[in-house]
């Protein structure tokens, strides 16, 4: 589970644009993570710029692009990129050991269709990702802020989901997953009220974990202990 962003929200769920809007979480890098950043950042790292990325230039081709916010240590993101070489993948993470671990795995897997940001997700999404450019946006196991008085801090809020919608192509999908049932209910409540989206669930609730989202070790352990995981997928319709 990863802190997806350093952004904060006020009591009305509005994103607070702070003067210093983010703090990169350095953490303690292992030697391997440090070496991976040195070796692979030139090819796979994206430096933040407030101008929209030219995805064709970045990846050297035109292809559907998947963006993941808060990829943690990056194992599942690398697996997705490896298993779908026809797609482009971009990951955003503020925790530097996660960047190092992801780049180490990506280098070992020899993936060429993955790029990563070490930056605040809200800034990247708002400024660096062109409107209508994403085939899928992934938000897996964000901080649940499980205490009721902290629910407003959850990233899935009306303003955020409309920002996501703007970045998706028509037909693009916002895919969320959480292991907190209460957060899944919150996600559904926000998404059902959001304009321009359609739930991909035939029951109007959650979906089965799709093949493109790998089962994490953390999740597999949860299943053995009888813990639930909820996947929610909404498509941009307008």
Automatic annotation (TrEMBL):
It comes from the Bacteria. The keyword S-adenosyl-L-methionine applies. Substrate binds at residues 147, 179, 216-219. Its EC number is 2.1.1.33. CDD domains: AdoMet_MTases. S-adenosyl-L-methionine binds at residues 68, 93, 120, 143. It is an enzyme of class 2 (transferase). NCBIfam families: tRNA (guanosine(46)-N7)-methyltransferase TrmB. Catalyzes the formation of N(7)-methylguanine at position 46 (m7G46) in tRNA. This is tRNA (guanine-N(7)-)-methyltransferase. It comes from Shewanella inventionis.
């Amino acid at each position: 589970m990863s802190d997806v962003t350093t952004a904060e929200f006020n009591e009305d769920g509005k994103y607070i644009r702070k003067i210093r809007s983010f703090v990169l979480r350095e953490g303690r890098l292992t030697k391997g993570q440090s070496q991976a950043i040195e070796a692979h950042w030139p090819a796979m790292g994206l430096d933040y710029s407030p101008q929209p990325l030219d995805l064709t230039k970045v990846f050297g081709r035109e292809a559907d692009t998947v963006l993941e916010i808060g990829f943690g240590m990056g194992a599942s993101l690398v697996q997705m990129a490896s298993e779908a070489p026809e797609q482009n993948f971009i990951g955003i993470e503020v925790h530097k050991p996660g960047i190092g671990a992801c780049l180490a795995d990506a280098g070992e897997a020899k993936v060429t269709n993955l790029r990563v940001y070490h930056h605040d997700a809200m800034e990247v999404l708002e400024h660096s990702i062109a409107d209508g450019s994403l085939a899928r946006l992934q938000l897996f196991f964000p901080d649940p802020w499980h205490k009721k008085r902290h629910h407003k801090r959850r990233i899935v809020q009306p303003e955020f989901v409309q920002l996501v919608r703007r970045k998706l192509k028509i037909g693009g999908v916002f895919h969320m997953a959480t292991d907190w049932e209460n957060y899944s209910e919150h996600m559904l409540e926000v998404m059902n009220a959001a304009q321009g989206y359609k739930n991909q669930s035939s029951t109007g609730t959650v979906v089965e974990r799709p093949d493109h989202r790998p089962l994490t070790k953390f999740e597999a352990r949860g299943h053995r202990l009888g813990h639930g995981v909820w996947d929610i997928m909404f498509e941009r319709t307008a």
